[in-house]
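Annex B, item 7. Sequence and structure tokens for protein A, then protein B.
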Amino acid sequence: MTEIAAIAACAVLAALAVFQIALIAGAPIGRFAWGGQHDVLPPRLRSGSAFSILLYVVFAIVLLERAGLVTVFGAAFAQTAGWVLFGYFVLGIVMNGISRSRPERSVMVPVCVLLAVLVLLVNLG
């Protein structure tokens, strides 16, 4: 079950990376991210989207390591980082939930809930 949850979380992170790539490319979907104030992201937020992709890669490695599928950082780091990720996604639920952007709230809150549950399953496995 832990491996399946980790792989599912990685799939969600990959989908988010594709979303961020679209934002970087200028797709008019900014209302779903970064507070929803821009349809097309300005350069500073596009840089934030690029950084987000790098974070998603690190998150995926941590989850895969936590599930015992890869060894990169070491078990102690992965264990701590796994719980930090859980807290990060719980915080994401709150932060997206208070967004002024209705599209961001309606899409990103469920995504963060799903990721929080998957990360919890990985950490408990």
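Protein B:
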Amino acid sequence: MTAVVSDTSPINYLCLIDAIEVLPRLFDAVLIPPAVIAELRHPRAPRAVSDWLDSLPPWAKIQAPLVLLPGMELDPGETEAISLALELRLPAILIDERAGSLAAQQRGIAPIGTLNILLSADTHGFLNFEQAVERLRSTNFHINESLLNAVLEEVRARKKP
């Protein structure tokens, strides 16, 4: 296990489906840049997210990058998250958005999306992937249905006796 930097989306959705507690079981620490905190504190943020932020657990640490990478043309949260991950030489970042994931990948950082977090948590026995996905579907999370169905088939095949 290691530390990981998170963008807004994975924290938001994990809070919404009541699965945020898988993060400290998968990572030693989750570093959250100030711009991500600001996005999570948006006035229209869901109550589950603001409640979590109001009692930030010790494994979630707010940390700003020393320098922002220029020219990424991403939102402030993604820019700070990728900059921090590079600065700390972390191998991965929690991020869902396609442009941010591609920018991270181009810089040698593995993007880990919300579905991958849930899949890893299921593999380790920390939650049930199918139940988590059903809760995720009740949010505004966007996912390619054929991709999701392929992952669900994989999970079901792995769990067959």
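Comment on protein B: Residues 65 and 78 are 12 Å apart (CA to CA).
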